[in-house]
Amino acid sequence: xxxxxFSVQILLxxxxxxxxxxxxxxxxxxxxASTLDTVGGLFVQLLKLAVPPLVFTAIVVSVVSLRGVANxxxxxxxxxxxxxxxxxxAVSVGIGLGLLTDPGRxxxxxxxxxxxxxxxxxxxxxxxGIVPTNPVAAFVEGNVLQIVFLALVVGAAxxxxxxxxxxxxxLNRSLLEIVQKALWWVIRLAPIGTLGxxxxxxxxxxxxxxxxxxxxxxxxxxxxxIVLFVVYPLLLAxxxxxxxxxxxxxxxxxxxxxxxxxxxxxxxxxxQRSVERLGVPREYASFAVPFxxxxxxxxxxxxYPALAAIFVAQVFGVDLGVxxxxxxxxxxVVGSAATAGLTGAIVMLTLTLSTLGLPLAGAGxxxxxxxxxxxxxxATNVAGQALVPTIVAAREGTLDxxxxxxxxRRSPVEPVEPAAAAAAADRPARTDRPSPVPA
Length: 439
Known about the structure:
Elements: H1 6-26, H2 30-49, H3 51-65, H4 72-101, H5 123-129, H6 135-140, H7 144-161, H8 166-188, H9 190-204, H10 206-210, H11 214-239, H12 244-261, H13 264-277, H14 282-295, H15 299-315, H16 322-334, H17 346-356, H18 361-364, H19 370-396, H20 401-405, H21 418-425
Helix pairs in contact: 1-2, 1-9, 1-12, 2-9, 3-7, 3-8, 3-14, 4-11, 4-14, 4-15, 4-16, 4-19, 11-15, 11-19, 12-13, 12-19, 13-14, 13-19, 14-19, 15-16, 15-17, 15-19, 16-17
């Protein structure tokens, strides 16, 4: 299998999964559907298993690594500004597409039978949910937002303490290396995970369930495609003076893995390596990518909530005004951290619906097709997480243009010999770099 490119392995898993899913559904093979569900579920569980230690150690190390970055505060501020700008553009695309397509008009669904999801979000929950009452519980429950808060506080404290905190920082670097090595083993299983996830989705849903929501599903995919292949290339060309084709060549393995895994955090090691191969300085990438993987969600927190809010309003016969659309944009830009990098965007959707005063039961209407929608949403999320540090580095003059122009010649998922990795880290133009964060 090592002789077959990783992207081809993913594609083979995708095709075989679709075929097995249709076979299970057409012939009512419950054992095959159950097997596909188990295989896909185990893959996602393995990804989630690494999330708490990965997020904590990555953010602690990334914050401390800013010590060696010139103008670190300016870089962090520009990163946040670009996160907000791209989120605003993405939500504008979602709102515009929703007004153009009317995804909820003429849709006949059993509204009376719809119920609110068990996991919902509100501004009160969002504000109080950031700070954990018990640090251990945050890790046990896998509350990524609280883990991010703890990591930022601990990382900032270690940065200010300085030399006395070096043993603690070294421990986090070692833990990060161990977690990432274990996660790479899981990522290598992505073709098998793809087979299970896609196969189960086809076997469980099929066209019969998707058909009533076909217009909405199409709108979500078209909206994400517009952001991915129109907005992002325009930003790369206009703001970064970069060739968009080289960006997609370098970032595609991360986008591809995000599509099948539906986890921004689980894809984070591939995203970081992709960004570094695009020429972004490793010290900056080790900050921007982990931070983006938990807060930068153009698909889940911008395009999808905008379209879903319009859909729910139309299904329930509620007219939205200009103020409502402005509220959607505000929630998308400010509240995107509520999605916290995990699979699904239900928390963000319920936060948007509650802000607009729409029935939370409307989110229940979309739960059946959420896995199908989540694939393209997460791919868009990860592409945006790679885009922003690339543009910021280009505008700051720190992007290695030679590395960017040669991006994509080797997949970031392919194994790299230690000697080759060390040689790649010691580029002549960057000999003053500290020891890189293991990827």
